[in-house]
Amino acid sequence: MDQNPGCELDLGWLNSVSVNLAAIKNLAAKLETKGVKGVHRAAWILKSITLIDLTTLGGDDTQSNVSRLCFKAFRPLAEDLLEELGFHYNESCPIHTAAVCVYPSKVKDAVQCLKQLGYYDKINVASVATGFPCGQTPLKTRLEEIRYAVENGAKEIDIVINRSLVLTGEWEELYREIQQMKEACGKAHMKSILATGELGTLNNVFKASVVAMMAGSDFIKTSTGKESVNATINFGIVMSRAIKEYYHKMGYKVGLKPAGGIRTTSDAIKWLILVKEVLGDEWLTPELFRFGASGLLGDLECNIYEFVTGKCPNGYEFSMG
Ligand SMILES: O=C[C@H](O)COP(=O)(O)O
Questions:
Q1: Less Cβ around it within 10 Å: N or C end of the chain?
Q2: Is the peptide bond before 5 cis (omega within 30 degrees of 0)?
Q3: CA 82/CA 77 separation, integer angstroms
Q4: Predicted confidence (pLDDT) per residue in 250-293, tens digit
């Protein structure tokens, strides 16, 4: 995968930003009325699985639950269900998640497990970093954390931005911090978590998106999953429009990662429709779109079970999701 080269900070662009709330609400309402059914829905569910960064970010994470997460990423559906859909688990099977996402201290465990499964090259290890979730540690420490995760084998780094710089309008400082984080990532792809629920206004969400992209982010990500407001469709529309503008101005496609509170198949499908409508089908690949989710896979699997058998699964059947 190539990397976003970034560009110089363009304050003129930032100063011209004015998000039209009525238009955002209109589009969000329109997207609500769209849906997919039957075999198309099943196909979108399978697609959703391949777009997940399967996440565990708990204070109680252990080597064994990280291994369990990796195994679930490697074999996300029960074998008999997958076979009913015409797929078989073998080396060329495309049905696995895009990445697993863990804390820096758990990167080694995830790398070791995926290597044992022979999937370290197919399922990326992503690590949150930079004082996740709040980003309130000195910059030096935040940069060291990135380097630690990369040295341990992370191929993707989910940094958190310094929200206070957004709230005080210190865009140059924000740009400089993110640029240094990008440098610390080296060859690893950088996803910048904006923590949209803490940015105050949609104008700030748009501006923070643009600054993060100008500083070289390969993805922009809505939330940590720890804020009280996480991935909403309104934030998704604003960020997608920023990505589209950046593409038109700079010729580079930055990815989008909604994360936080995405739990159901209908949540996932809503996001896929949004991306298809605002950014286009070309964004619906793991290179340009991810779901950051700890609890979505179980519901996707239940929905596939229902599609295949015509029955609702018992609550205990997919406990590993
Ligand atoms: O980056 C991923 C988020 O932490 C996941 O949030 P979630 O646990 O609400 O799915």
A1: N
A2: no
A3: 6
A4: 999 999 999 999 999 999 999 999 999 999 999 999 999 999 99
CA of 159 to the centre of ligand 1 (A): 14
**Ligand 1 near 224 CB (within 6 A):** yes
How high is the pLDDT of residue 312? 82
- CA of 231 from ligand 1 middle (Å) equals 9
Measured distance CA(285)–CA(3) in Å, rounded: 16
Asked if residues 70 and 106 have their Cβ atoms less than 8 Å apart, the reply is: no
DSSP states of 258-289 as a string? Answer: -BSS--SHHHHHHHHHHHHHHT-GGG-STTTB
Report whether 102 contacts 61 (CB < 8 A).
yes
Residue appearing with tokens 């070791």: 112
CATH-assigned architecture of domain 11-309: Alpha-Beta Barrel (3.20)
The token duo for 73 is 């990423």
Tell me, using a 6 A CB cutoff, whether residue 55 lines ligand 1. yes
Please report, for the chain, the start and end positions of each structural domain, with discontinuous segments joined by +. Answer: 11-309
Q: What are the DSSP calls for 51-77, one per residue?
A: TEEEE---TT--HHHHHHHHHHHHS-S
pTM of the model: 0.96
* 115 classed as catalytic: no
Higher pLDDT, 1 or 186: 186
Q: How many CB atoms sit inside 10 A of residue 1's CB?
A: 12
ipTM comes to 0.97
Residue 75: Cβ-neighbour burial (10 angstroms; 0-12, 13-18, 19+): middle
Instruction: Give nearest CA residue, ligand 1 atom 10.
Output: 293
| Burial degree of 258 (CB within 10 A; 0-12, 13-18, 19+) | buried
